[in-house]
Amino acid sequence: xxxxxxxxxxxxxxDLLDFVDWSGVECLNQSTSHSxxxxxxxGYREDEGLNLESDADEQLLIYIPFTQVIKLHSIxxxxxEDEGPKTVKLYANREHMGFSNVNDFPPSDTAVLTPENLQxxxxxxxxxxxxxxxxxxxxxEDNQSGSDVTKIQKIFLYGTTVETTDMKGLKKIxxx
Length: 176
Fold this sequence. Notes:
There is one protein chain. By secondary structure, the chain is of the alpha+beta class. 15% of the residues lie in helices and 32% in strands. It has 4 helices and 10 strands. The strands form 2 sheets. Strands 1, 2, 4, 5, 6, 7, 8 and 10 form an 8-stranded antiparallel β-sheet that branches. The chain has a two-stranded antiparallel ribbon with strand order 3-9. Mean pLDDT is 89; it is low at 1-10 and 170-176.
């Protein structure tokens, strides 16, 4: 993909924050003083002094439901070089997961974050796996240095709403 087409694609993608159903958002193993809102909510995630931190160990399990069906294109997770997340497993439309059963399900995609990713470079996801997403579960399995605390400064979800789908494509489906 050329730099021009990558830029054009990026312009059509929206930050999906407006479509998060905040009443259902959950984060397991978050520090009470450094919660998910610090990394995900508008206004909070822009504050460099705020971050999400894990509590008992390095793992985090984040559940994000959406108010409408979305297509998820890419995700950006910013964090410090040493305590930022490393292995991140993403699950589309998988509800009620816990640390006890997270490994029972194959992830829709797995990302191993690099220092560039932690500075804000998005990870492009397997497109076919994230077409009709009603919820996203993010399992942070470990961090860059193997320390007990994982820190996330910002989470960005890039994609589109399904409503922006080409209507001609929908018509063909209805004809059958």
